Amino acid sequence: xxxxxxxxxxxxxxxxxxxxxxxxxxxxxxxxxxxxxxxxxxxxxxxxxxxxxxxxxxxxxxxxxxxxxxxxxxxxxxxxxxxxxxxxxxxxxxxxxxxxxxxxxxxxxxxxxxxxxxxxxxxxxxxxxxxxxxxxxxxxxxxxxxxxxxxxxxxxxxxxxxxxxxxxxxxxxxxxxxxxxxxxxxxxxxxxxxxxxxxxxxxxxxxxxxxxxxxxxxxxxxxxxxxxxxxxxxxxxxxxxxxxxxxxxxxxxxxxxxxxxxxxxxxxxxxxxxxxxxxxxxxxxxxxxxxxxxxxxxxxxxxxxxxxxxxxxxxxxxxxxxxxxxxxxxxxxxxxxxxxxx
Length: 342
What we know:
single chain, alpha/beta, two-stranded parallel ribbon, 15% strand, globular
């Protein structure tokens, strides 16, 4: 495969993707600004693990840069030097609740930063751009499961709005400059080395330390938990099959996730949405302790249910998630205890 550049390489999904490509001894460039949205030490440990893995492979082709995608000139210089042909853009300001407190960081990273990525794709004639979108774009939709053909014009958080904006910006560049772009709407990705701001990490930390966990919407929430290995398998396959124009596209009856341009959008989920209280039961079972639950109202910007229809990506790359939630949670808890030496 041609050289790949991954932004957000120190992030949860970025780390696992880089690990897979390093194991394959592919030409790979990682970029991350190592910001302090969550524990920087976790991000540094991910990069350290990747560096150690790379050192064990003869003639490893892994290079890592600490850089911010908002800095266009520095990014331009990296691409001038490395000359990648594929970009997998995973860097972003993540989190729904944090967007209520610090909206400007979402504008800078998710809009300004993404516009820089698109311009770099145009400047360096990138063959394939994959970028992270989110299930949060479905916003106030109540039709379950979420399909890429559903309306996504009513986001309920700034984070979701920036991710939907990314999809629209990508389409413009696909149309104007024939850049092959694929948006990936991830559904609640979990697993080892996960994000500390997400439920598995938050709940596990609290349960093991005997502290309370906050259960929003009085537990009446469901999530389509998707194991990290399944997500990486999907990205690897999408990397080998860039977006192409949809020859049957009808402008009088347009489809949201396809176009006359080389543009695609796919859900990447597990399809098995589980109630949050059931998820907590599985977590309690794997940890061996009972959670001290505090029930609260729905948090602003949250979505009550996420559930993915993955027919589109099944048809495109034959994607089929295989990791059962019980298995995935057990692997996550095992990693957590080892990493935090519990």
